[in-house]
């Protein structure tokens, strides 16, 4: 892996065209004939101190030599000072067998700042685009989805999903106050298996959970094998700034050993039926992109995927201290 120092304006232009045309500050690939790079952070620091000291927004991008070779580029170690053959060698990316005046952007990756805090933004926002133009990269992705049902919607598919679970001897019903200890125990059992990303992660159940479920704005639906709670989904009604009333899924969990039986679908389907009877017409849910099973389950229930949420982290600034 070799390093290149870039500027936000060069990177932003490359993202728009897919072609990175700079070679170094103030010179293009076409003019120089190759892309300037550094072997490591020490060399990058020397370059940054010499040429980018007045640009604290300069940052590092990485290039994989095998990927470059596979795309027809040649990386040659050549003297940093062409007039001095004995000067320290730096990697230069030459067109090789490809007569190109640029590097394709997919071959370049901004180096994420280690330990940086992410900013979670919807992918279709101007702010997300601006940050990526400035070298921010995606550390993780989360998804959100919406379900819309009319007053006279056909609810038979949801009843069928509940019936499929009941055919296995499972009872599916709205939870009562007496079930709260079992609900909390199942949530604690399932917590370590929840995927954790910057935008989607498990949180402890609130202390006022029972009071919220006793009110009009909370519903929990469980699946029971005998007296044991083996699946649950939890929803709360929210009132949006636009006036929309929506039932948001807070969490869905299935006890280990009972996965693959359709219990997640069954409790979610039952929750749609229960809240539709209360006047619910819009539902929201979400999760981590890595949780593909959850996404498939919600799509099967009719939820439509919305633009992803991106956890963006800043790039590593070009160091200006060679020490």
Helix segment tally = 10
Strand content: 25-35%
Mean pLDDT: 95
CATH classification, class level of the largest domain = Alpha Beta
Which structural class do the helices and strands define?
alpha+beta
How would you describe the shape? elongated
Helical proportion, percent range: 25-40%
Number of strands: 19
CATH architecture descriptor text of the largest domain: 3-Layer(aba) Sandwich
Taking the sheet with the most strands, its summary is: 9 strands, mixed
End-to-end CA span = 21 Å
Characterization of the model:
Helix content is 28%, strand content 31%. β16, α9 (263-277) and β17 (282-288) form a beta-alpha-beta unit. The chain starts with a strand and ends in a 10-residue tail after the last strand. It has 2 domains: 2-111, Alpha-Beta Barrel (ADP-ribosylation fold), CATH 3.20.170.20; 142-310, Gcn5-related N-acetyltransferase (GNAT) (Aminopeptidase). It is of the alpha+beta class and 323 residues long.
